[in-house]
Design goal:
- The structure holds 2 protein chains of 2 kinds.
- By secondary structure, chain A is an alpha+beta fold.
- Chain A is about 40% helix and about 20% strand.
- In chain A, helix 2 runs antiparallel to helix 16, helix 4 crosses helix 8 and helix 6 packs across helix 8.
- Chain B is about 80% helix and about 0% strand.
- In chain B, helix 2 packs across helix 4.
- The chains are: A alpha+beta, B mainly alpha.
- Chains A and B meet through helix 8 and helix 9 of A and helix 2 and helix 4 of B.
Chain lengths: ~475, ~90
């Protein structure tokens, strides 16, 4: 994909370019409907999910204070970090896959920036009207009516942002308790801070920054063109059909006037949320929202021309070359995506709800007891990730003649609890043939022998053997 | 400020320091606190009364401070030296 390096607004001799506010015009049509559906679904999920309950706990709760993540029936521990990493890799690959196939689908329909900006635009239109009224209002001097409209808009924006911040924190602390605390003005300092921080970020990004976030802040916008090829879906103006552009009467035949199909109504520019002219060719500012497609089809309909002067197409299709869907890079993305997803599901299915960490005592390499035995000390961290309590049995292997001494013989651990157990391995030095040995701690549930883990530790003896 | 930098919009100048550092600080926070429990660190260092949420938050902001400092220094040292000389003459 070729991108023009044209800056969104040309500055003069100023220190920095003055940002020109973009007033996106309201648009209706197929893609606008799709986006609204996306917005309602995604925001609905975001705002409602934390209120769901599941098996006695909040369905989705990233319980940072307890260092446990609940996602419906699954519970994740810090040890399960690998799953989060895999999930991130899957998300990235899915993004690459969809970008290669259909361009900036993510940007146009699903990105939080797009979604919240869309809602903020709706609220702006309630108070300030559509594009023309907004421009007129902004040019008018600050008087009673304007002040009222502006302050009403900002109040609603701020309330919505605060609710957004509250919901965000509700993913990390139980939301019903948080709600009660908020109603009593009794939230903890950090919770208050994060509600305000996230709320402010929402207000700033969706109310003020808008397309500048996509243009200046978004890393994906910078590198997405690397995923494009000639068969990638993109939004394009059909220059051959549209040019030369010009206004004409509805009854006039463009061929007689020597004109193309573009009536130069500039509606495609007016609806653009990033303020570009799609007729200038592909630009990296284009987030692929298809607002210009909708509005242009509308105009084409009114003019009784065929729709699709601006449309979803591919570079190949524009040049009359057939478009291929299954290309090598698409196949590679699908293969990787399926492989990693399958590996993740498999490893989660065989995941044992039991964890054991072996930490060697760092104060001394070894200790000699009064009886002349060599002793190593370990700290064992046992995590019962199961939903029921278990009693465990611990053995040690890998070192002939060694005895395991536990300070706590009763290894009964409640569901979801972490227990730290100091352990000692003692051995008569006659058994030691070298300085270090790998020893294996095996922890087995007494009621279920399939529930066992083995962890390696290191036994170190005296040097002069 | 160089000619090209003069053309950079103010938002871009500000976010090129605050935003990349925010992203890396977020990643660093996740990685760091996956390995270390904030409460343990706080207790060991004698700040036992600070909660885990407080620990996470402070950790994040410490990381953000560090990463944004390095972003700011990068921007600072990116200034071509010949222009600095001109200014002094």
């Amino acid at each position: 994909m070729k991108t023009s390096s044209k800056q969104p607004a040309e500055g003069g001799g100023e220190f920095y370019e003055k940002h020109k506010k973009v007033y996106p015009r309201e648009v209706h049509g197929l893609f606008a409907t799709l986006r609204v559906t996306g917005v309602l679904t995604l925001l609905g999920l975001y705002y409602l999910l934390p209120w769901l309950s599941w098996e006695g706990h909040q369905a989705v709760l990233f319980d940072l204070p307890a260092r446990k993540f609940y996602i419906f029936t699954l519970t994740f521990w810090p040890q399960d970090f690998i799953y989060l990493a895999a999930l991130l890799i899957i998300s990235a690959l899915a993004l690459f896959f969809f970008t290669t196939l259909a361009g900036r689908l993510w940007c146009g329909y699903a990105c939080p920036q797009t979604v919240w900006t869309e809602v903020f635009l709706w609220m702006e239109r309630w108070f300030e009207g559509d594009r023309n009224k907004q421009i007129k209002l902004d040019n008018a001097p600050m008087a009673g009516g304007k002040f009222l409209r502006k302050s009403a808009k900002h109040t609603v924006w701020l309330l919505f942002s605060l609710w957004t911040g509250f919901t965000f924190v509700g993913y990390f602390t139980p939301i019903t308790e948080l709600g009660q605390a908020v109603l009593q003005f009794n939230t903890g300092p950090w919770e208050t801070f994060w509600i305000l921080f996230y709320g402010f970020a929402t207000y700033g990004n969706a109310g003020w920054m808008r397309e500048q976030v996509c243009i200046y802040m978004c890393p994906y916008a910078r590198f997405q063109s690397a995923m494009f090829d000639k068969d990638t879906l993109l939004i394009s103006y059909d220059e051959q059909r549209g040019e030369p552009r010009g206004s004409r009467k509805r009854s006039a035949d463009p061929k007689n006037l020597g004109l193309g199909d573009c009536v130069d109504c500039t509606l495609c520019v007016q609806v653009c949320p990033t303020g570009i002219d799609i007729r200038d060719g592909l630009q990296y500012q284009c987030i692929g929202c298809a607002a210009c497609v909708d509005v242009c089809n509308d105009v084409m309909g009114k003019m009784k021309y065929a729709p699709g002067l601006i449309r979803y197409t591919t570079e190949n299709a524009m040049q009359g070359v057939p478009t291929r869907i299954l290309r090598p890079r698409v196949t590679i993305y699908i293969t990787l995506l399926c492989a990693i997803t399958a590996a993740l599901i498999y490893s989660m299915l065989i995941r044992l709800p039991l964890g054991l960490d072996v930490i060697r005592d760092r104060n001394a390499l070894y200790r000699e007891t009064n009886e002349g035995l060599i002793e190593n000390i370990y700290i064992l961290k046992i995590i019962n990730m199961d939903k029921q309590a278990h009693e465990y049995h611990l053995t040690v292997s890998g070192l002939e003649g060694a005895t395991l001494l536990l300070e706590k013989t009763d290894l009964l651990i409640d569901a979801g609890k972490v227990v730290t157990v100091p352990a000692r391995i003692r051995i008569d030095p006659v058994h030691l043939k070298k300085i270090g040995y790998d020893v294996y701690f095996t922890l087995t549930a007494k009621d279920n022998s399939a529930l066992h883990v083995r962890q390696k530790g290191r036994f170190i003896g005296p040097l002069n053997r | 400020m160089t000619e090209t930098e003069k053309k950079l919009p103010l938002v871009q100048q500000v976010v090129s320091i605050l935003w990349p550092s925010f992203l890396t600080a977020g990643a660093a926070t996740i990685l760091f606190f996956t390995a270390f429990d904030p409460q343990l660190i706080m207790e060991v260092s004698g700040y036992g009364e600070i909660s885990r949420l407080g620990g996470y938050s402070m950790g994040f902001f410490l990381f953000w401070m560090l990463t944004s400092t390095s972003c700011a220094l990068t921007c600072y040292f990116r200034k071509p030296c010949d222009e600095l000389g001109k200014k002094n003459q």
